[in-house]
């Protein structure tokens, strides 16, 4: 298969010797028209001290694949600021990969089931929730939801599927995290951070703060679905200032963070090693 692919694209691969030097790995690769690899530098951020619910703490490191200068140093500085107080509390509120399909109703009907239907006009947007163990589960839940929709359509002539199952509502894990940081490490004061209106205007606070570059780097290094970065970094940062202690508490909330430790790109050797580090 590799030889056929190389022959097919030989006219554009003449100068791609670095990309194609491991083209013989094709039998172990799960993508189509495999021609080789592109290298992304991997740096290690940390240590980050995380406080566990039982009162113990865990020292964690994050492999980040990126070509962006200073991102690793920035992450390390944030890790140092939080670890000095051992006040980082990450939690997972819900582990629930979902798919949402839209069914067009030709005649009003009523049914009861353990799913989440929402009627908008003459359409019913239905969310199906699943548990997928350690997998992100994006492919398996698409297949499962398609089969449910096929069963629904076959059981009645009064509806039709009118949207792709890729449209989703809150697809996977929900992660809020709280951080009380030693702000002298960041050379800032808590009051300054909390009162900084400019921080809101330039997206340091609120939705879509600059977490996409870090999330993307960790996703690539650990074999996650890089396309899921479009929804994963929709983080919401909220500051709370304690006037007595003059400390600021930052809460970073991820409504959806699609991650897994099995399946997809997590099967490759370097990604497995990165997951082991993490």
From TrEMBL:
Write out the entry's keywords from A to Z.
Oxidoreductase
Tell me which EC number(s) this protein carries: 1.1.1.34
- Entry keyword annotation includes Cytoplasm: no
Biological process according to GO: coenzyme A metabolic process
**What terms describe the molecular function in GO for this protein?**
hydroxymethylglutaryl-CoA reductase (NADPH) activity
Q: Which PANTHER family match?
A: 3-HYDROXY-3-METHYLGLUTARYL-COENZYME A REDUCTASE
Q: Which family does it belong to?
A: Belongs to the HMG-CoA reductase family.
Q: What is this protein called?
A: hydroxymethylglutaryl-CoA reductase (NADPH)
């Amino acid at each position: 298969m590799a030889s056929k692919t190389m022959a097919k694209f030989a006219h554009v691969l003449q100068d791609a010797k670095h990309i194609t030097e491991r083209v013989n790995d094709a039998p172990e690769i799960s993508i189509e028209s495999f021609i080789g690899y592109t290298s992304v530098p991997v740096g290690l951020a940390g240590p980050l001290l995380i406080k566990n619910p039982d009162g113990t703490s865990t020292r964690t490191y994050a492999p980040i694949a990126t070509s962006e200068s200073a991102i690793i140093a920035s992450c390390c500085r944030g890790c140092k600021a939080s670890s000095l107080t051992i006040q980082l509390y990450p939690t997972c509120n819900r582990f629930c990969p979902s798919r949402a399909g839209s069914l067009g109703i030709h005649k009003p009907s009523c049914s009861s089931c353990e799913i989440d239907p929402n009627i908008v006009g003459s359409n019913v947007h239905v969310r199906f929730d699943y548990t997928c163990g350690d997998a992100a589960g994006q492919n398996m839940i698409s297949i499962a939801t398609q089969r449910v929709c096929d069963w629904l359509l076959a059981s009645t002539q009064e509806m039709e599927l009118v949207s792709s199952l890729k449209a989703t509502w809150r697809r996977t894990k929900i992660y809020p995290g709280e951080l009380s940081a030693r702000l002298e490490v960041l050379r800032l004061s808590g009051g300054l951070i909390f009162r900084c209106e400019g921080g809101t205007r330039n997206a340091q606070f609120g939705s879509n703060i600059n977490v996409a570059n870090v999330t993307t780097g960790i996703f690539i290094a650990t074999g996650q679905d890089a396309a899921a970065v479009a929804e994963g970094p929709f983080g919401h940062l909220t500051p709370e200032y304690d006037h007595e202690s003059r400390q600021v508490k930052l809460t970073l909330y991820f409504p959806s963070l699609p991650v897994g430790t099995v399946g997809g790109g997590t099967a490759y050797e370097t990604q497995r090693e990165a997951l082991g580090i993490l």
